[in-house]
Amino acid sequence: MTANTRRDGEELLALATRLGVRSTVTTYPFERAATALDDLASGRFAGVAVLHRAPSPV
Prior knowledge:
This protein is α+β, with helices and mostly antiparallel strands and 58 residues long. Helix content is 41%, strand content 17%. It has a two-stranded parallel sheet with strand order 1-2.
């Protein structure tokens, strides 16, 4: 196993840009985590899913 360096990450991102790699992100509010898991299991989205929560009131 090897550890990647910051430079490795920079090179990877530069290569991805040159190759036209695009990411697809589907967001769900934290309260809908069960829906996100259901959608994942059923293949209802491509890419990654991210749970988010509302910002805390100040």
